[in-house]
Amino acid sequence: MTVGRLTVVCGPMWSGKTTALQRHADRAHRAKRPFVVIRPGCDTRTDHWANHMGTIGPGKPLVHDTESCKRPRVPPGTRLVVIDEGQFFGENDLWRWCEHWTLLGIDVVVGGLDMDAWGVPFEAIAKVAACASVVEKVTAICARCGADATRTKAISGDVEEPCDDGTSRIRLGGPESYEARCRSCWVL
Ligand code: ADP
Ligand code: MG
Ligand code: ZN
User: Fold this and answer.
1) pLDDT below 50 — which residues of the chain?
2) Which residues contact 34 (CB under 8 A, 6 or more apart)?
3) Which residues have CB less than 5 Å away from ligand 2 (the ion)?
4) What is the strand order of the sheet 134-137 is part of?
5) Where are the alpha helices (DSSP H) in the chain?
6) How far is the centre of ligand 3, averaged over its atoms, from the C-alpha of 78 (Å)?
7) Closest approach atom of ligand 1 to CA 13
8) pLDDT tens digits, one per residue of 108-147
9) C-alpha of residue 149 to centroid of ligand 1, in Å
10) pTM to 2 decimals?
């Protein structure tokens, strides 16, 4: 049996990660390849799987508890697993799940933030990217100068520095809290 392909799409906020994942899901949908979309339960920003332009992806996403290190159950016959916001899952869970599925011949596409708003890599994405056959680094547009944005900047006062245990690095927010910035505008 052919081993599945693991693709990771990563970059800052607004870089088109969810849009890229929706395209993979849409192609599977049109090709009648059974697919599963997995979203973290802690991402409560929307009920459905929408990108920043409001486009809703196909299928009913499976919401998985990020506290659980148990691999999400995918139905027999699944050909593609799509995981959005991969940074929310356990750093040693996500890549192991992906290894398991690809060995069963299932293609996997993971989207997620490569770094938090303080420039610290998200371990779950770094590790799953290490296992991937393809890593797509995507960029947004810098809110300051219009160059390619590779980073996310916390702009609101209520987004604190992360604690030592890393908890506050995960703060749900949108344009009121974060901006996409190029590397030079990110330090300003
Ligand atoms: P991600 O999942 O990476 O956060 P989405 O795929 O949900 O991104 O949304 C990407 C869309 O966000 C772009 O196509 C664009 O319409 C919109 N957008 C808003 N702000 C920006 C920005 N600063 N740079 C690029 N796109 C932006
Ligand atoms: Mg997204
Ligand atoms: Zn800039």
Assistant:
1) none
2) 28, 75, 77, 78, 79, 80
3) 17-18
4) 62-64, 35-40, 80-83, 107-113, 6-11, 134-137
5) 17-30, 94-103, 123-131, 183-187
6) 42
7) 4
8) 999 999 999 999 999 999 999 999 999 999 999 999 999 9
9) 11
10) 0.93
